[in-house]
Amino acid sequence: HGAVKNEDTFKTSPFHFDLWFYFTLQNWVLDFGRPIAMIILPLEWFPLNKPSAGDYFHMAYNVITPFLLLKLIERSPKTLPRSMVYVSIIMFVMGASIHLVGDSVNHRLIFSGYQHHLSVRENPIIKNLKPETLIDSFELLYYYDEYLGHSMWYIPFFLILFIYFTGCFTPVEEESRMPVAALLLMGPSSLYYWYLVTEGQIFILYIFTFFAMMALVMHQKRKGLVLDSNGLFLFYSFIITLVLIAVWVVWLWNDKILRKKYPGVIYIPEPWAFYTLHMNNLHAAKESF
Fold this sequence. Notes:
Layout: H1 17-40, H2 53-75, H3 82-108, H4 124-127, H5 133-166, E1 169-170, H6 180-200, H7 203-222, E2 226-227, H8 229-251, H9 256-261, H10 271-288
Antiparallel strand pairs: 1-2
Keywords: Membrane, Transmembrane, Transmembrane helix
InterPro entries: CLN6 (IPR029255)
Pfam family, one: CLN6
């Protein structure tokens, strides 16, 4: 399954505007939009002991995203390792489903005063729980949400994108250019990847994928092969994402509170931690006036 058929070698593929458009749209609506929908829609519609609107968004994401990833693989001009793709899709769905449960509870805790810029044990509503073993349970929930769920979700996600990227090379120089539609989609796509990397705390996974893409581009260039329009779209989106991450880190470099939550060598704050720390305080100050 992993071998590239000889007859596939010089096949070309047009820019998949429909798939990239649907992919970008559903990422913004179903992934980025789910916590927003949970917050802005009335609690009377979605009680705290029932799934929120964001949970239904997440359920739709868990179905639609694997389908679009499979369609991307199907449209590749190369024969790609299908067994690896299918295993990755299964892992993706498992990870995203684990994340659905943990993230649902963690985001609903916001209505009870939970603050995402603090650790689980430092949160005012958690640290005084009795018995203290309940705090361990909330830390386990956080682990499933932020670590296990993210790993099983994002590792296969980036692996599938990289597998697809390996088939995006052509010997025809004229095909190594992007149409206007690709340029228009690049901004929203790059901004979403910035959100994905920062909120998911997966910079190491992202940067290794990006380095692997760069190495593959240089290797294929020696063979006289260049990226086609789909490969350029994905590669440039990753480059712009890196720039956005750098700007984000520089902007929040001296934030002492966020520094405390992210004490490691790699300092990349989560957007929702920034929101609960600064934007909520800003809204509260405005309401007091």
